[in-house]
Amino acid sequence: MIILDELKGLTKPQRSAFVASLLGWTLDAFDFFVVVFLVDTLAAQFHVTKADIIWTLTWTLAMRPVGALVFGLLADRYGRRIPLMANVIFFSIIGLLCGFAPSFGVFKILRALYGIGMGGEWGVGASLAMESATPRWRGVLSGILQSGYSVGYLLAAVAARTVLPTFGWRAMFWVGGLPALLALYIRAKVPESEAWQQHRKESLGAILRTVAGHWRGFGYLVLMMTFMMFFSHGTQDLYPDFLKTHHGISPATVSLMAIFYNVGAILGAIVFGALSERLGRRAAMVAALGLALAVIPLWAFGETLAVLAAGAFLMQMGVQGAWGVIPAHLSELSPDAVRGVVPGLAYQLGILIAAPTNTIQYALRDRLGYQWALGSFEIATILALATIVLCGRENRGRLFVREPAGAV
Questions:
Q1: Superfamily (CATH H level) for 13-391
Q2: Could you say which of 127, 185, 281, 331 has the lowest number of CB atoms within 10 Å?
Q3: pTM of the model
């Protein structure tokens, strides 16, 4: 109720900018997770192995830094609205075309291109949302914005249980073409960022020089985001397989558990995002990390379905709780003139560096067993990430827009 009351205090332009950013990230995540639910189906359709389909996920992730760089530079040079519209149209068309792919080769290329769109959306959308909100609302909106990732996952799971059995796998991607309509909403309702108008650079060269001049701060953000990716993907990607292979839980039950713990993820992002306005960005993140560390015995070593479900729910509350602070934290730590490119590029480079997460955990499984592979990896990750966060700085409440001369 408190959060709803705070959201009512936003102006209409602020709400429009936030809604556009939230929907963009949610629908972007939906189209990514569709493939996760279609691995077996696509392998049979294209007469390839499941490993080949999983590699398309890797190509999507690998291309995300390209999108963050391209669309981020455009956002810092030409404003947030037009690049965000272009990005939404781009990833919507690519997602739609995936449903028409005649062969695996075409599908693989399309999923790589989709990675460019996915990589560009978060940085541009987050900068627009955070710059459009006053500092008072930033933490709350940061958590809600980041929860769009988990909402997209949920929607993909629902589509897999409804659209797929009735209309087939191609319709799953055709649904992903609908976000293009969001561009019309952005065009009609969303104002340009005043912060960008005040701090805009005159050329792409000037933008790149600004990024280079802040290389230490940028390097810190990449390091933090790398361990954030170890944290999230280390608790999410192999967990369904862990439940099925180690505990013998049926795929149908695992999918229901995934929906359940994603509810925890959404709650965590919103709650800890809001807490970051009271406790500070770093303290809220460390508190979320502490929750995740505390529930590892339930999450990794539980022996009953109820204990595992509770552990997964609380684990994702902690994981996405820390993530809920990220849009605000990265925006506040980024230089004004490059807020379009720096947060998004740091985010996507982090996921590129952390790409071997699943490979590392799988190798540990052969040596330590599945429980200790997941548990020990996350214990080390959480302790390292907490240290990185505490050793950094924060700019909570930083003003993105200069006050008019003479304002009191």
A1: MFS general substrate transporter like domains (1.20.1250.20)
A2: 185
A3: 0.84
